[in-house]
Structures are given as structure tokens and as C-alpha cells.
Hints:
- By secondary structure, the protein is mainly α.
- The protein contains 22 helices and no strands.
- It has 4 domains: 1-126, no CATH class; 150-246, Alpha Horseshoe (Serine Threonine Protein Phosphatase 5, Tetratricopeptide repeat); 264-360, Serine Threonine Protein Phosphatase 5, Tetratricopeptide repeat (Alpha Horseshoe), CATH 1.25.40.10; 372-421.
- The protein has helices spanning 12-22, 27-31, 37-44, 53-62, 68-89, 93-104, 112-128, 132-143, 151-167, 171-188, 193-205, 209-225, 229-245, 249-265, 269-285, 289-302, 308-323, 327-339, 345-358, 363-379, 383-399, 403-415.
- α11 (193-205) runs antiparallel to α12 (209-225).
- The longest helix has 22 residues, at 68-89.
- Residues 16-70 form the HTH cro/C1-type domain.
Amino acid sequence: MELTDKYQKVDYGKLIYLERVKQRLTQNELSHGICSVPYLSKLENQRISDPNPETVSLLLEKLTVDYRSQVSRVQEVLEDMEHWYSCITSKNDSQMESYYQKLKSLPLHYYPDLTIWFQLIAIRYFIRKHDTLQAEMSLQKLSAKENKLDRYQTFYYLYFSGLIDCLKQHYKDGLLNLHEAEEFAKEQGIHDSELLYHLALTYSHISHSSLAIYYSQIAKRYFDQTMNIHRGVDCQVILGINFLRINRYDSAEKVFKDILRISQSINDTQLVGKTYHNLGFLYAEKGELEAALRYYYKALEIKKEYSKGYYSTVLRVIHAHQQRGETGQAMAWVDEVLENDDHEPDTTIQFKLKKLELAGEGDDYYQYINDIALPYFLKVNDKKSINRYCQKAALYYEENFHYKKANGFYKLILNQGGEIS
């Protein structure tokens, strides 16, 4: 995002328009005794490239806007906004929060473009914080000014609209907005590698591996050129996961080992743990369960105990032991987790499902799916889990001639936009 070179010039028309609307003045009331209504209308709609300075000065005076005192701060604020956006995309959460608090306290309403940019970047800020409600509220505030956005602002409006859809797991809608932003950027000569990264990430979320690989490779080239190591690694993670999905095991292994080397060199222990987990999953997919367990246990040594990521790896450890016929070891892990009552509902449900599965997937297993697991997954909109357990329950009841129950689960899959396999 480049703002300092684009927004130093004051857009008097936009300033006058926003202040007039804020003060609830009509064009006739504001222009009276200063200029004609048509002239004011052209000025507000950016149809006068070189407005009369005296007319502008009189209009601002009538609006009681002391613009001159703000001009000296414009450069500094623009730079702060660029840094704020950079902190958001680089996941520097402490600095991101500092810039938000600083910029929020400034009287930005004196400069219309700064107000718009603050509102735009605030959308991305709330997306980073996974605060869907605030992100949508910020977008709604901007929607009233959508026809006043310039081309650069319009691009980010489209882009961030797509990210909100993806945050809500509405990936089809998200892709429509992201691709609209992509086409608009091409037409207007605008570039932001973050958009390419998010296209790759979204296609990865819906398991469209070919396009996830395509966009992550393009994005990685740009991030490498700008020495953005962290985002480059994010792209590699998408590449590795999607090479794995299409059984390109050698390519996936090469990518994951490259990520491991980089993450160790920059002392990113969290990424090291995630990469050991991914290598474990890779070897499990290849059927090399002993090697898979070695990597999973390495991941557990590094990951923060009792964190979501930790439990994700524990589930993989359990599954690997289960595949090796080591039911006792698998059950011991389940019992150890369930002994601790202090975890999220999602964790409890996943491990109770696994315990019932290891015990033989009897009637109580499917009763638990119906009564506890599915209502929770529906509540949190976990479409993958809904689809997975509905499929299992439907097949179980179908095989046991309970066709009405089976049909209910199939309908639920379709209602959630899933496919029956």
C-alpha cells in the first residue's frame, strides 16, 4: 500500500462534500452568497481540476474548517497509515494495535482521504483480529461513500469485502469479490501482492489445489523480490499443503524442509512446530507411520502445551497409532487430554468423538454426533466437520435401514452447500 506519494494534494471537493453532509447543509445553503449551485456540485464531484482558491476558501470558512493547521500533519499521518497496514500484513500485532490507537485519536475528519483510508485499513485491522462484526460495521460505514472513493480506494474496498466473506467462510462470495478486485487492479495498474496471497489462501481453503498453487507461486515471486521473508514462507506453506493434496509428495517434502530451514534460521519456533506437524502428515499420507510419528512428537516438543495447535497434532498422533493397530496407545492419549477439563468446546468434542470411535463406533457414537457434535459444528459454522460427520451418520443409518434418519443427514449436507460422496 503506497499512500504518501498519492494523497499529499488536498481534494477540496471531497472535503467540502463530506463536511457539508456532516453539518446537514444543502448545496443551496452552502453556496448561497459564494458561488452557484452547479459550480459547487461540480467541485464536490471532482469535475473541476483547478478550482478558484478564493471560492474554496470562502466555502471552507462557511463550514468553519481550519484546514491549514492540518496540512503539516498529512505526510506524517500517511506514513503512519502505511506502517499500520504493514504491521497488519506482517502480523506484528503489538505495533498494529499501537498505530490503531494513535490514528483513532487524531482529528482525521479534516482531511477526507485520511478518513477514508483510516476506515479502509480499519476493516483489514478487524479482519486480522477475526472480529467479523466490527469489520462489517466498518465496511458498512464506507458503503455510504462508495461513489466518492477514488480508484485506489475502490480496489481496497473490493479486496477487503472479499476478505470479510472469507472470514465468514463464504468462500464463493469471497472469491467473486477478490477476483473483481484483481480485474480492477489490472485495469487500473494497481498492485498489492497481498491480494494474490489471499487468492491462494482462499483456493487452498476450498481445496482447489491447482489455483492455490498458481497464485501462491506468483505471490511468492513478488514477496521474494521485496525480501518479505514471512509472507514468502506463508506462500510456501500453501504450496506444500496443496502439493500434498495432489500426491506430489517429493515436491511437498522439498517445500516443507525448506520452510523448516528458514523457520529455524529466523528462530520462529511456532512455524518450526507447524512444519514438523506438516512433515508428519506427509509421511502418514505416504503410509510411513513410524516416520510420521517421529515428526509429530517433534512438533509436540515445540508447540505450546494445551494450545489448539498442540491438540491438532495430538489428534494426528492418535490417528497414526490407530492406523498401526496400537489402540491402547491411542486411547491413552485421548484419556490424557479428556482428564483436563480446561479446554475449548471444540477440543472436548473432537476428543470425545475420537474416544467413541476407538471404542468401536457403536450407537452411542452416532447419538453423540447427533445430539452434541453437530449442533456445535452448526453453531460455529464448521462446514468441514458438518460434512464429515453427516456423511458418516447418513451411511451408518442407511446401512441399518433407518432411511428417514439417513435422509435427514443428507439434507443437512446439501443445506450447508456440501456434496454427498
